[in-house]
Amino acid sequence: MKLWGGRFTKETNQLVNEFNASISFDKRFFRQDIDGSIAHVTMLAAVGILTHEEKESIIKALTDIKNEIIEGTLEIDESFEDIHSFVEAELTRRTGDTGKKLHTGRSRNDQVALDMKLYTRDDIDETDRRLKHLMATLLTMAEAHTETYMPGFTHLQKAQPLTLAHHLGAYFEMFKRDRSRLHDIRVRMNTCPLGSGALAGTTYPLDRNMTAQLLGFDGPTLNSMDSVSDRDYLIEYLGALSTIMMHLSRFCEEIILWNSNEYQFIELDDAYSTGSSIMPQKKNPDIAELVRGKTGRVYGALTALLTTMKGIPLAYNKDMQEDKEMSFDAMDTVKACITLFDGMISTMKINKQAMENSARHGFTNATDAADYLVGKGVPFRDAHGIVGQLVLYCIEKGIALDDMTLEEYKAVSPVFEEDIYDAISIRNCVELRNTIGAPGKKAMQEVIEINKKYMEEN
Description:
The chain has 19 helices and 4 strands. By secondary structure, the chain is mainly alpha-helical. The longest helix is centred in the N-terminal third of the chain and has 37 residues, at 108-144.
């Protein structure tokens, strides 16, 4: 059944039908379509366009259709053009002429705009829930590793010592911003397009405020042309999803490095690794690599929708049907990546000793050695040069700063005393950094408490 056949005298070419149809992918928002229809007929009855009996008959049939699809006893027939025409045909089959009144005061344009908004809103909530669970994992790990020392990097070179808790905390902040973006998008998009008609509203006395309230919106949209042609919220959401994936991808890159034979900071659980078909010794970080790879896929959806929308005049155009497949794929991809990444990091083993040894032998305490000299009255630039000589000496000898004797220190500068060893111990280098946001245990514990409160309130 087509919703628009009356004006046509010829059947549509079958290839055109197939090319035009969207049911193969828009069938996934049957719940949103039916919920929107239930709200619509409830409003139609309230304003006197439908009788109470007609409303009850339609709502019962629609509810049955939804439940049967969920239970698997009703299969969506993909010979229909879209999910809207399937639901309406099934409704009419069950209720006769009463079902034909469902579409009064409504166009497929505002109907699909509503369905996509409802679906996106639901997906934002689910993505946010999964992100919050991942952040809870990070927070638990951070609490357990405030004294797990490791090198911090700049330019992929060891820079200064910090803790695993501090490193994990950086990603916690990124995901916190991601959740904030999701919240902002949800607030901004939460207006109801239903009742906008094809583009110019309707002459029926609809109560759009009522429909909006029934569907959990803050109110109706205020311009019917914009209502049916707006996909800004979807572009914003794909942008937010792309940023989430960028953060996951950065973290995955580090997991891949840490899991390598050269670092051995972590060992991934067997459940989140794979082997090689030819090299029996291999344990590959495939999940991390796939998350990193799928980031480009989500970026592609954002770029594609921006490109699709850039030349579309007001109001609705069929090009906009292209918003669905790419968006659904991106939504599914991000949710799966968050969940798998969460499982991967929560089960990996942390090699504390390897992390600390890497910090010690990477001269991450060189800055603290320079600060020690400054504390003894040596100008910083001179101190910088002296420590540079010490590092060169250690490289030639194959030792760490901690391994040098006091005599070797004094040979470079007589200012050094026995207390140099306390000043450059990895533990002290970290623990003395206790300004808010720094890696010292006291500062980290304060931040962890702040983030616990954030998790309780958000």
